[in-house]
Design goal:
This protein is of the alpha/beta class. The protein is built from 17 helices and nine strands. Strands 1, 2, 3, 4, 5, 6, 7, 8 and 9 form a nine-stranded mixed sheet that branches. Helix 8 links the parallel strand 1 and strand 2. Helix 4 packs across helix 6.
């Protein structure tokens, strides 16, 4: 792990894991292009030389370096003070205090911890200055010139009014060689709905209400060598397909991971530039069909639950497949109040519908324990569960989150029961194993 304290703050982040070849995502500073190194900020206040280099490597990834530099195979431990120094630069002071509290609670030397915490009190959180890819504007994509066939996958459930809007968006695309495969699970099914659109649409009626089955079915039915993943309650811009294609070509990537933002809002600043993708959302992405042949289809253990797309993205990352976060292929998340997972499962991964429901949704712990292990899953629970007590609409309201922390303490017996129930149900999933179907060329 680059810096040890990241295990408390990002215990289940993609980049915490080495890839299948043993490599990390973090580039060796000496192997970075001079143009990139020149934009990084040297920090001489670290005690250890290793920490100075690790900080630069972290900066390179966080500011959007996408390239072929050699990466670290392993990391040397750095002093406690350097760990506090690093997290103060990267995280809100409240999270730095959280780490101090956890370290003291887990019987680390209090004198060493408090001294290191105080000695770094002058260090402030630093803004990110993104790398700019100047050649992007004038780049001509061969994928676009060759008019490669794209298969757009859209699962839907009882959202015809919302689906109508996104299909009209696809009628306005500036790239024309695409098919749309809609897997419709609605009741009642309205076949006549699809006749109103000037699109190449293949409709598959699916009786079972199952999101990951729907996406797997559509991928197997697709004719294109490129798969675009969308949803029935988003809005896409006229250049959505072409911008995904251009990203794949420009960065020699296999996955272009688009960005969501809520209706009426803007793209979050930390996701407003190209960078190596640390997440994957099936509502906005494009990838080569060969990626599914390499890592398999979506895991049906996540059916009617959450994080199936995150698990797939993690498989892609571990396999060493280049995936680029593409802010220019953004889409508006309408957040429909009806249909979809609201009708057939869990819309939120951490907030329960009933007092005695599992917290988090069992598939979340299934993911964490499968890939990151028991200890990291526990750290993730400490990191996420207290903040999930308040309803979704308050998730970014800091005063209400503080209230949630106090409520979590007051409701400790109930919360512990919810977590225990989730852990037990996740154990059942782990015993059953992954339900990942392979995709063969014949499919």
């Amino acid at each position: 792990m680059l810096f040890e304290f990241l295990k408390y703050l990002q215990p289940t982040h993609y980049f915490q894991l080495p890839r299948a070849n043993g490599q990390s995502v973090f580039p060796l500073v000496n192997d970075l292009p001079n143009s990139v190194v020149a934009k990084l900020k040297q920090d001489s206040y670290y005690v250890s030389d290793f920490a100075k280099d690790y900080d630069l490597s972290w900066q390179a990834v966080q500011t959007g370096y996408i390239g072929d530099a050699k990466t670290y195979l392993d990391f040397e431990p750095v002093p406690v003070q350097d760990n506090y120094h690093f997290i103060r630069k990267q995280f809100h002071p409240g999270w730095v205090f959280y780490v101090l509290f956890i370290r003291l609670l887990t019987f680390h030397d209090p004198i060493t911890e408090i001294r290191a915490w105080m000695n770094t009190s002058h260090v402030k959180k630093e803004p990110i200055e993104a790398i700019k890819y100047e050649a992007w504007e004038g780049y001509e994509s061969n994928l676009i010139v060759q008019e490669s066939l794209v298969s757009v996958v859209i699962p839907t459930l009882n959202r015809y009014e919302y689906l109508k809007d996104v299909l009209h968006d696809f009628e306005k695309q500036d790239y024309s060689n695409f098919e749309i495969i809609v897997v419709d699970q609605s009741e009642p099914f309205q076949s006549e709905f699809y006749t109103a659109f000037n699109l190449n649409i293949q409709v598959i009626q699916q009786e079972e209400k199952a999101l990951w089955l729907a996406r797997n079915t559509a991928i197997k039915a697709s004719k294109g060598g490129l798969i675009a993943l969308s949803e029935d309650d988003v809005r896409v811009f006229p250049d959505w397909i072409s911008t995904h294609l251009k990203c794949l070509d420009f960065f020699k990537a296999k996955v272009s991971a688009g960005v969501f933002y809520p209706e009426g809002k803007q793209i979050p600043e930390e996701r407003s530039f190209f960078m190596q993708a640390s997440q994957f959302a099936t509502g906005n992405a494009m990838l080569y069909k060969s990626v599914f042949e390499r890592v398999g289809l979506f895991d049906r253990q996540f059916e009617k639950q959450r994080m199936g797309d995150g698990e797939f993205g993690l498989r892609v990352y571990l396999e060493g497949i280049r995936s680029v976060s593409n802010p220019l292929a953004s889409c508006v998340d309408v957040k429909a109040s009806i249909g979809g997972l609201r009708e057939m499962g869990s819309w939120d991964a951490f907030r329960t519908k009933k007092w005695f429901s599992p917290r988090p949704i069992p598939s979340v712990l299934y993911l964490y324990r499968s890939y990151f292990g028991r200890q990291a899953a526990i750290w993730a629970l400490f990191r996420t569960v207290p903040l999930s007590i308040m309803p979704y609409q308050f998730k970014k309201n800091k005063p209400m989150l503080v209230v949630g922390l106090f409520l979590c303490v007051l409701l400790t017996p109930l919360v512990c029961f919810q977590v225990w129930k989730s852990w037990r149900l996740a154990s059942v999933k782990l015993e059953e194993g992954a339900l990942i179907e392979e995709l063969t060329i014949d499919d």
